[in-house]
Design goal:
By secondary structure, the chain is of the alpha/beta class. The strands form two sheets. The protein has a four-stranded mixed sheet with strand order 2-3-4-7, with helices on both faces. A three-stranded mixed sheet has the order 1-5-6. A hairpin with a 5-residue loop joins β2 and β3. The longest helix has 17 residues.
């Protein structure tokens, strides 16, 4: 886990705005990406940076464009024209992008379709390429996932491993018919607040569960530190039962079942 320092981010946002003219295009996009990854809201800074970057999107590398599209989607930036412009600038560079970059564009494309269903996304002709890249790059093999899956099986929550949704999202543990999923979040999905000492989900960690819920899935997350604590006290089965117990008390094929509350900190 990294470190979350809200006062530092506030100070950066204040210091950066009057000096944006000194920033390269890469600096601008990386700043947006850093704030979005940490889940830090800075609308005035974003407005200023994006206004400066927008006329120069064609100058961006494929790497920076993919990062920017992903960052805007994570931050739920309410400007479909900007996200479409980033995607359009990305289109000629898709063939040279890495799987991770294409995966970011796949998630951004899904976010766009969910938010603005009446709009056409410029990368729609590349959808198969983006989805295939996402499948290659998505990790469903965190060390804790195997142990969590075993605990779920022991308490009787049967599930499918590495289920791929119609939209190409990969779920490590799922009941597809009921649209329920359990996702393990490792250290990289959290920052540690320097004031409280508590772990806080990053913007990236919140993004994919949000997409899944928009697609009608019930999702619970298993933070790495909660799982570690349950292993230390040898109550792993009780812990996973607290996560999915409400699902086990109803018909597993019922689509209207409520998901248990998930803990994110």
């Amino acid at each position: 886990a990294g470190v979350l320092a809200p006062q530092l981010f506030d100070a950066i946002a204040t210091a950066v705005q009057p000096r944006l003219g000194e920033f390269s295009l890469q600096d601008l996009t990386m700043t947006v990406g850093s704030f979005a990854a940490a889940g830090v809201d800075a609308p005035e800074l974003f407005d200023t940076i994006l206004a400066a970057a927008r006329p120069r999107l064609d100058e961006c590398s494929g790497h920076n464009l993919a990062n920017l599209a992903f960052a805007l989607s994570c931050a739920e930036w309410k400007d479909p024209d900007l996200l479409a412009a980033v995607a359009a600038a990305s289109a000629p560079k898709v063939s040279a992008m890495s799987s991770d970059e294409l995966s970011q564009l796949h998630l951004a494309a899904l976010h766009f379709r969910l938010e603005w269903a009446d709009r056409s996304f410029p990368l729609s002709p590349c959808q198969d390429v983006l989805e295939a890249a996402h499948r290659r790059s998505a990790s469903t093999h965190l060390p804790a996932q195997r142990d969590v899956a075993r605990a779920l099986n022991r308490i009787g929550w049967t599930h499918v491993a590495s289920h791929v949704t119609e939209e190409g999202l990969i779920l490590p543990m799922a009941q597809p018919d009921a649209k329920r999923a359990v996702i393990v979040h490792g250290r990289r999905r959290f920052l540690k607040d320097v004031v409280s000492g508590e772990y806080v989900e990053t913007g990236h960690a919140r993004f994919e569960p949000r997409l899944l819920r928009r697609l009608g899935w019930d999702v619970v997350t298993v933070p790495f530190f909660e799982w570690q604590r349950s292993k230390q006290t040898r109550d792993e089965d009780a812990y996973v039962k607290s996560k999915v117990g409400a699902w086990m008390d109803v018909d597993p094929d019922a689509s209207s079942a409520e998901a248990p509350a998930s803990s994110s900190s």
